[in-house]
Write a structure and sequence with these properties.
homotetramer, Rossmann fold, five-stranded parallel β-sheet, about 35% helix
Chain lengths: ~180, ~180, ~180, ~180
């Protein structure tokens, strides 16, 4: 059976990040041929084009992990109505040097949780602009603007009953999207 | 005479950054009551909310420099159709902890240069969204989507003749904007 | 006492539009030197540059009403994650012919209500991009992403108790913004 | 041989619209199994939700034409840093009533020309946001931010030599995208 390794990028470094928990919980809703790995982005240097010729080990690792994946899952926080600088820095690193982007052609889905009612809607809009440029075909609806509130997760860290159906539907469509786009 | 110290944020760490040169050249077009300081953002850690209680020295320095300024000048690169992760990381740091943003109410202007024809237009659009949220009243036109090409600077690093009039007009309007908005 | 006539643009033509009701309710929170007029945009033709030399009466009326105002209030619906075509058409008309825009320099505020949780956040982001280009200095926070739900209005059509304090604060800041920017 | 009828939406009503000419010229670069029809959007009424139950004939025609297509081609002007109200009005009409959108699942490509250097980059960004919500899988690169200048078309109205290779490549990728996504 074909396997679909998915690279997961979480847009917040906070230890108890809602988005990290959301990423972990979503994995439970995926079929067995999909495997998910959260990529480490907190040890990357700030991107500086002068380093393109001699990238840090953490940068080489990030690019290799993305290249090995058949799909991408972005679980983004919203900082100041956009994606975090942390996530953008990772995106910038893996897109360079010019002509050697690791992102090209990888199908993606976007999720995001925040405590506010708009639930990362504005961050996701910026992320979609960026991914379109990077030739990352990104699933449209269902949009997942998740409000981080009590009951989102159950006691075991899985998606709680109130959101289960929506999230399972999201995952089913994501799986279909990756299979359609992935070469 | 009232003095207007301006904090300048350049969105690229590259040593020979066009945007850094542009920032330096624009200073020559300003009146004597405006002084400009390029803030260092390349030594900031990646933002992590867990560090809010014990920020790094570089973060404290950045916030103090912004708070001391009467205006802001963003000279942004465009990376992947948005601002750089480096610049967004600096914006995130100075906006936190919640309720203690250093940006609030500071008038701003946006410039940006790139080698491509669209000249950072898309990065500037994202930056405007972010600044609106941060309560940074940002000057509208004239938009400065600068294409980085021969003749932009003269041999002394000043704005070249072909762009001088446009850039002087930009600066004059920026000065008026800062004086109007700054308390 | 100086008077501040405000031109109000409502982004939905629906008779029972939440945004129209919101526009009407907000007026009650304004001081006596501010007067509000909802502009008619439903009788405009679709914008066609070929008609610039001989604009329809409805277009001439719209431009005159905007020019007579000292401030703008946009109360926008969200259609398909942007402003409505109806509102954009009105904006396009009043911006033309080239060099004869009626919008230039008028201070603005943005409100918007929708039944969804994100409450026009994405429409407002597009509108801010457009207004920045049109040289319309637009108030930043407080953002008003209003969810249209029971209790938003009281029995008399005024803002209900649950939202009164937020909306009064919004209006107070809007009034200060218009007075600061308006020549 | 399977046939791919494509619905073309041009974002400007001007008789001598560059974008209309661009749409016509692009057709010459397509393979014989692709046929293109420019949809009429200039006779649509302004969208009003109150009319959902009894849509105008022009609205019914627009929706039927979109539903009959296997792909979409947007050739957009940029008005005030977004798509035209005229185009947005057409998008709004064909998306309603709620649950009966004609757009769902149709693969799309975006082109746009303007006299300015940024060549509709900002309009295209807004259009991508809108199409993502409408479940219209939209091709990413190559971006076509076309500057409308002498030589863009040859004497017969075809794409001129200077842009031919880029535009042929765009069309080839568009054709592959439609075939991949279309059911």
């Amino acid at each position: 059976m074909a396997q679909y390794p998915i690279a997961v990028l979480v847009g917040s470094l906070r230890r108890d990040s809602f988005n990290r928990k959301l990423a972990s919980a979503m994995v439970q809703l995926a079929p067995p041929d999909f495997t998910f790995t959260q990529l480490q982005i907190g040890d990357l240097p700030l991107y500086n084009q002068d380093d393109d010729a001699s990238p840090a080990e953490s940068v080489k690792r990030l690019k290799a992990e993305i290249q090995a994946a058949k799909g991408l899952l972005f679980v983004t926080a919203e900082y100041n109505r956009s994606i975090s600088g942390v996530l953008k820095n990772a995106i910038d690193h893996a897109s360079r040097p010019y002509g050697q982007s690791a992102w090209t052609g990888k199908p993606a889905g976007i999720l995001g949780a925040s405590v506010g009612a708009i639930g990362t809607a504005l961050a996701q809009q910026h992320l979609r602009n960026i991914l379109a440029y990077l030739d990352v075909p990104t699933m449209g609806p269902p949009e997942a603007f998740v409000q981080a509130k009590e009951g989102l997760f159950d006691g075991s860290g899985n998606i709680g009953d109130g959101s289960r159906k929506f999230m399972q539907d999201w995952m089913d469509q994501y799986v279909a999207w990756v299979k359609k786009i992935s070469p």
